[in-house]
Design brief:
single chain, Rossmann fold, 6-stranded mixed β-sheet, binds adenosine-5'-triphosphate, amino-acid transport, ATP binding, P-loop_NTPase, ABC_transporter-like_ATP-bd
């Protein structure tokens, strides 16, 4: 079967410097791939390049057969790619309701994910509609960042370290939300340092080192290979 997201020979970086040196990645439709790797290997650069924030030097990024490498961010968003960025990017003075209204106005496509459905999935946000971004906990901000991305009805959702800075109980809620959106058919690429979260939600792992994917495995296999985890990630 042809992968829904197919990245081949992706070279990218900043101001002529190379971070991704010919990266290949596949994600099946409706599947969850976790991209793992130590700090600084280029995980955020991968997300930024797929999303069009960083223009690739070379290579191919196809979504459902359509070439997106080098396209503008708005074209990529309309083609069905959504992102939950690292650090959440919630605006301090805007309320939850205002964030959602802006995201709904700017949405790339209509589809199953509307405000009512998202508030059903993320009930805590419904209780905080009148609260400003800077009044939300880290977990609430993360749920808002996810809600904003879902409102765009992406077919491919890129999440950049959604567990960062969250308490373990909230991390498992984030994991449940990711599983639920994937169960509805959305394809997910999850960049994570939290191995437990990655292994509990994804079907496959792709491990990055120095700007390329050096190891791919089904999660169950990676979970039962402590030698691989130590060698590739430096963790037990
Ligand atoms: N905007 C930028 N301009 C120049 N260099 C950058 C920029 N963003 C990242 N880099 C560099 O690119 C390399 C890869 O960074 P990147 O953030 O993609 O890695 P990462 O795997 O996501 O790391 P982390 O896990 O710490 O978030 C690093 O050497 C970093 O310093």
């Amino acid at each position: 079967m042809k992968p829904f997201l197919r990245v081949r020979g992706l070279r990218s970086g900043y101001a002529g410097g190379v971070v991704l040196g010919g990266l290949d990645l596949d994600a099946e439709e409706g599947g969850i791939v976790a991209v793992l790797g130590r700090n600084g290997v280029g995980k955020t650069t991968l997300i930024s390049t797929v999303m069009g924030f960083v223009r690739p030097y070379e290579g191919s990024i196809t979504l459902d057969g359509r070439e997106l490498a080098g396209a503008r961010v708005d074209v990529i968003a309309r083609a069905g790619v959504g992102v939950v960025p690292q650090g959440r990017r919630v605006f301090a003075p805007l309320t939850v309701a205002e964030h959602l209204a802006i995201a709904a106005r700017r949405r790339a496509a209509t589809g199953p994910w509307n405000r009512a459905r998202i508030l059903y999935l993320l009930p805590r946000l419904g209780e905080r509609l009148g609260h400003r971004g800077d009044e939300l906990s880290g977990g609430e901000q993360q749920m808002l960042a996810i809600a904003r991305a879902l409102l765009g009805n992406p077919r491919l959702l890129l999440l950049d370290e959604p567990s960062d800075g969250l308490a373990p109980a909230i991390v498992s809620q984030v994991g449940e939300v990711i599983r639920e959106v994937s169960a509805e058919g959305m394809t997910v690429v999850l960049v994570e340092q939290n191995l437990a979260l990655a292994l509990s939600v994804a079907e496959h792992v792709a491990v990055m080192q120095k700007g390329s994917i050096v190891h791919r495995a089904p999660c169950a296999e990676f979970a039962s290979s402590p030698g691989d985890r130590r060698r590739l990630l430096g963790v037990d």
